[in-house]
Design goal:
- Helix content is about 30%, strand content about 35%.
- It contains five helices and ten strands.
- By secondary structure, the chain is α/β, with parallel strands linked by helices.
- The structure holds guanosine-5',3'-tetraphosphate and sodium ion (2 copies).
- One sodium ion binds near residues 61, 125 and 126.
- One sodium ion (NA) binds near residues 27, 60 and 125.
- Its EC number is 2.4.2.22.
- Belongs to the purine/pyrimidine phosphoribosyltransferase family. Xpt subfamily.
- GO terms for molecular function: xanthine phosphoribosyltransferase activity.
């Protein structure tokens, strides 16, 4: 996705140890025009798959998930990372290990909004080691619903998540794929190599 690629090139900041900071449009300040285009792109890629729900995880997965859902005409459910005062009944729960923070987090979704009739598109902002995606897959499976695919805004292809999810048989659609982050520069996976 050319627009996203340019945005990453112009505004992304390469931090140490393979981390890309994109706080100006994705992780802190949100660019709604870009999100709209991202939503259109996900919708285009999954429009013929009979998607009935989008599942994401708070917080940064929510904007792209909502825009894609608007285009596909479905609702979005976001997994919560913290206990909620009101979300207490009928919870589907999984654990997600964060390598970045070196801690295990419990994520939860209410069974009320997801069942065996659903065809789910999972969306997230980043794909690194794939822990968040695997936690979401676990929750969708517990509900009896089917995972149709995984839509990612920025994939760090040099980490193991994308390869592992594809190995497991999932369709992974990443709008930007980063091959490496070296000397402050973002190197994208060349489309021809795919
Ligand atoms: P994984 O799920 O793929 O295994 O990822 P990991 O544990 O490494 O990621 C933990 C958090 O860090 C996630 O956000 C993830 O989106 C984010 N992250 C991972 N790599 C990068 C990166 O290179 N750049 C940025 N900007 N973020 C990265 P989170 O803690 O769940 O936060 P949020 O969704 O509330 O923003
Ligand atoms: Na994030
Ligand atoms: Na995220």
């Amino acid at each position: 996705m050319e627009l996203l690629r340019r945005k990453i090139e112009n505004e992304g900041i390469v931090l140490s140890d393979g981390v890309l900071k994109v706080d100006s449009f994705l992780n802190h300040q949100i660019d709604p025009e870009l999100m709209k285009e991202i939503g259109l792109e996900f919708a285009e890629r999954f429009k013929n798959e009979g998607i009935t729900k989008i599942v994401t995880i708070e917080s940064s997965g929510i904007p792209p998930a909502v825009m894609a859902a608007l285009e596909l005409g479905v609702k979005v459910i976001f997994a919560r990372k913290k206990k909620s005062l009101t979300l207490t009944d009928n919870l589907l729960v999984s654990t997600v290990y964060s390598f970045t923070k070196q801690e295990e987090n419990t994520i939860s979704v209410s069974h009320q909004f997801l069942d065996e009739t659903d065809n789910v598109l999972i969306i997230d902002d980043f794909l690194a080691n794939g822990e968040a995606a695997k936690g979401l897959i676990d929750i969708v499976k517990q509900s009896g619903a089917s995972v149709i695919g995984i839509g990612i805004v920025i994939e760090k292809s040099f980490q193991k998540g994308a390869a592992e999810l594809k190995e497991l048989g999932y369709r992974v659609e990443s709008l930007a794929r980063i091959a490496s982050l070296v000397d402050g520069k973002v190197n994208f996976v060349e489309e021809l190599e795919e």
